[in-house]
Amino acid sequence: MTQSTELPAQDDAGRTPAAAGTSRTTGAPRTPGRIHRAWFVAVVTFVTIIGAAAFASLPGLLIDPLHQEFEWSRGTIGFAVSVNLALYGLTAPFAAALMDRFGIRRVVAVALTVIAAGSVLTVWMTAAWQLVLYWGILVGLGSGSMALAFAATVTNRWFVARRGLVTGILTAAGASGQLVFLPLLSWLVEHHGWRPAAVTVALAALAVVPFVWLLLRDHPADVGLPAYGATEFVPKPAPVTGAARRAVSVLLSAARTGPFWLLAGTFAICGASTNGLVKTHFVPAAHDHGMPITAAASLLAVIGVFDVVGTVASGWFTDRFEARRLLAVYYALRGISLLFLPMLLAPSVHPPMLFFIVFYGLDWVATVPPTIALCREHYGEDSAIVFGWVLASHQVGAAVIAFAGGLARDVFGSYDMVWYASGALCAAAALMALIIRRPPAPKALGVLA
Q1: Which candidate, 37, 83, 116, 420, has a CA 20 to 30 Å from the CA of 273?
Q2: Cβ atoms of 335 and 424 closer than 8 Å
Q3: Which of 135, 75, 180 lies closest to 412 in space, CA to CA?
Q4: pLDDT, average across residues 37-45
């Protein structure tokens, strides 16, 4: 038997895994009770997503102010938001591949900078095409490069155990950011106009960049550790070239399988019924019924509170129950709640509306952990890129409803038809989730004596 001459991976200080306090054979820290570095990376990722969540909190607050100041139709404003949402999704699979090529830190730092640039440029816009360019294209590209593929990549690299729980926590970070920024941004819009709110979004994105660059690490091998829950140390793989080509090849491969289309279809409906509909149009719809903008935005923030609870719980459930059945339950409950919403909108906040907010918040992105789990189950090492494409369908669905909702409001004078249609789509998504089959179990290999 020949011995390998490969040198062990080193951490940032040049230490080998053994010197860093780990066992290469067991992957366990030598110091009992020591907190694994993966949890610190998860904290950095969580805070980064919170800081970047400001951009996702603003579109629904812009519709009425932009309509009043520039006399743009709600359909026109909705189109800019739809471009943002579509690019958010379509960029995600390429972002996952770019993270494999250039590293997580570089991609996320550049993405945050692009978000800040796009947001601050809207302050000087005078025409609708500039809204599409600045908010739709620049912020869309930047936010798509951070998307949920960021959380999926961090989880896949740093965790073997507790993946469902960590996925739920990182997914909930976006809702936590919504909780932080929505009340502030709505107050700014109502008392000082929409421009200070846009500047706040830019500053929030820029503030996170040093945090990412100094504290985030791309791979456990960078610090001489195995992934959390792994039994062996795995050297950092070489950078993957041809990021765009790989993203497309993974798509073409996954597109030949049925589960991909079912996951993409259900997630498109997820995006349509959350980011495209409620996040974009709930505030103007409630305002149509006489509710103040700050009150409606505060209700969205409350959704964020219960979204954190629901998503973390969903991650816990995903570690213990069959993912496709969880998806079916989530979509069915969401559809039922949307059918009741038109009857609940009123000038003031009342108990039935609060019940809807709590119920809908618990379900908001509870679909993400089981969807990521199903991608991992069916597509293995390519699961982060596959999920990026599934996320693209999520945002395309959101983009369609963001535009259709504004158009429906222009044509029919209300959003009622869109709420009912989205409820019906959620029922269809529940049925699609149940159709997803389990992957075939690998065949047992004979052991040679």
Answers
A1: 116
A2: yes
A3: 75
A4: 85
Q: What is the pLDDT of residues 121-137, one digit of tens each?
A: 999 998 999 999 998 89
CA distance 195 to 129: 17
Measured between alpha carbons, how far is 122 from 413 in angstroms, rounded to an integer? Answer: 28
HSE toward the beta carbon, residue 116, CA cutoff 13 A: 16
Residue range 305-330, pLDDT digits in tens: 788 788 888 888 988 888 999 999 99
The full 3-state SS of the chain, as one line of letters, equals CCCCCCCCCCCCCCCCCCCCCECCCCCCECCCCCCCHHHHHHHHHHHHHHHHCHHHHCHHHHHHHHHHHHCCCHHHHHHHHHHHHHHHHHHHHHHHHHHHHHCHHHHHHHHHHHHHHHHHHHHHCCCHHHHHHHHHHHHHHHHHHHHHHHHHHHHHHHECCCHHHHHHHHHHHHHHHHHHHHHHHHHHHHHHCHHHHHHHHHHHHHHHHHHHHHHCCCCHHHHCCCCECCCCCCCCCCCCCCHHHHHHHHHHHHCCCHHHHHHHHHHHHHHHHHHHHHHHHHHHHHHHCCCCHHHHHHHHHHHHHHHHHHHHHHHHHHCCCCHHHHHHHHHHHHHHHHHHHHHHCCCCCCHHHHHHHHHHHHHCCCCHHHHHHHHHHHHHHHHHHHHHHHHHHHHHHHHHHHHHHHHHHHHHCCCHHHHHHHHHHHHHHHHHHHHCCCCCCCCCCCCCC
Domains of the chain with bracketed CATH: 37-225+251-433 (1.20.1250.20)
For 274-292, what is the mean pLDDT?
A: 86
With 0-12 CB in 10 A as exposed, 13-18 as middle and 19+ as buried, what is 141? Answer: buried
Cβ atoms of residues 231 and 359 within 8 Å: no
In this prediction, residue 155 has a pLDDT band, given cuts at 50, 70 and 90, of confident
Rounded Cα distance, 28 and 108, in Å: 30
Least trusted range by pLDDT, from 19-33, 109-123, 168-182, 323-337: 19-33
Say how far apart CA 389 and CA 264 lie, in whole Å: 8
pLDDT band at 201 (very low <50, low <70, confident <90, very high): confident
Cβ-Cβ contacts under 8 Å for 73 (sequence gap 6 or more): 67, 406, 410
**pTM for this structure?**
0.68
In DSSP terms, which residues pair with 29 in a beta bridge? 22
- Tokens, residue 16: 């080998």
